[in-house]
Amino acid sequence: MSSKRAVLLGLLTLLVGFSVFQVTAVPGLYQYAVLMPRAETSDDTKQPGDGDEQEGDPTPAPSAISLRIKSLTDAFAAQDDMVKGWSITAYITAQQLQESNGNTVTARLVGLWGDTHIQPAPVLRTGRLPYREDLDAGTRVAVVDERLAIELFRVSDPVGRLMQIGGVDFEVIGVVAHRRTPGEHEAFSAYVPLLAIDKLEAPNQVLVVSLQPASGAGGFPALRNAMENWMPGGEMYSLTKETYRALLPVRFLLVFVGVYLLTILFRLASRLSARMIAYGRRKLVNRYVTSLLPLFLGIGLAIIVSYGALLALTYLVFNQAIDPVYVFPEWVPVVPVEWTEIGKTFWANVTAQTKLLSVRTPETLALTFWLKVLPFVCGLAAFLLIEPLRRLKNVWTGTPSEQV
Predict the structure, then answer these.
(1) Are 213 and 82 in contact (CB under 8 A)?
(2) What residues contact residue 318 under an 8 Å CB cut-off, 6+ apart?
């Protein structure tokens, strides 16, 4: 193998490894993403006895978000055996953040509520993250990423300083490491309690409900129905399934290499078996069969064990090749041999992946990005591996003339 090919294969291996690390870092959650209706008011979700504010009543009317949270809490109270934890995250793009001296930065605003521990925690640089009490009370605190801290406050540690969001002051309590994922248009992000921005007028506000399913409970269809009843018009995702989809190119690359290596091993086993049998025949020239029985038994056992191991490996590779069918049963036509059913299934899958309007979550956007990158990387790696594998086959199983 040439040095250029070896270097390129090494770089591709590193890229595949980095991609797999990024993909597997996505938590195994269910997510429901929906656009918050822009014109929604508390009138849409009023409950009996929730009147408008009376004159002289200091208690403000509940916001639409708080009513939505209450209704979802009531819905999950009857399904605690299916869900271990859940959270709501609001994503508001192109939000103006202003520092007291007048400096303004456009950033992505992220509102948090619920069991935020089910998501991977950001790397904290200084300060602290919001407590659960902050999220429940809607305390006006904020955590900013380190690049936003520099851009807005001109310092790396603005903990204790104030910034304005929609004309309201928020105290910075922490700084986290900057981490921008595919699909994020803004270069900066700020994290605040959702109930602190529940009345912020923001178009295209996306709500993402993240659900941590109970172990072995399943329940994806039931939870999807519950979420659609809670707020219709959204998209339900299983991040476990989407992670599996993103890693399919790596799986197919490993299956390709495994099948090629199996062909080499079968040929090698065939040659070794022939040599052992020939050795036993030569022994028969000078010795009786009865004295060679242990030798013949050993040769037979070695052949059986070697082919048994190869058949077990073949079964493993075959299972890895067909395993996606069990994860994505929608790929299989009702009648696999009829072209009409095949075409119907094909277009159903294409339509599901290319909807005209679809609400996505940051995690699904990142997985979609890697799903676009990995086929190219794995395809190029498979092409570059053909020649080394062919040479390996010749070295192990080829004739002397082939090895020259």
Answers:
(1) yes
(2) none
Tell me the HSE value of 77 on the side-chain side, using a 13 A CA sphere: 7
Q: How much is the pLDDT for 180?
A: 76
The pTM score is 0.81
- At 207-253, the pLDDT tens digits run 999 998 876 556 788 888 888 888 888 899 999 999 999 999 999 99
- φ and ψ of 206, to 5 deg: -100, 130
Query: For residue 113, what are the CA distances in angstroms to 27, 134, 192, 236, 255?
Result: 18, 9, 9, 19, 43
Percentages helix, strand, coil for the chain (3-state, rounded to 5) are: 50, 20, 30
Distance of CA 16 to the CA centre of its chain: 15
What integer pLDDT is reported at residue 257 of this predicted model?
Answer: 92
Contact 30, 220 (CB under 8 A): yes
Q: Which of 355, 329, 333 is nearest to 344 (CA)?
A: 333
Spans in the chain with pLDDT lower than 50 = 39-55, 400-404
Size (the chain), residues: 404
SS3 30: strand
Closest CA to 35 of 203, 244, 194: 203
The DSSP annotation for 52-111 comes to PPPTT--SPPPPHHHHHHHHHHHHHHTTTTTEEEEEEEEEEEEEEEEETTS-EEEEEEEE
Q: Is the Cβ–Cβ distance between 111 and 89 less than 8 Å?
A: yes
Which pair of tokens denotes residue 18?
């980095």
* β-pair partners for 140: none
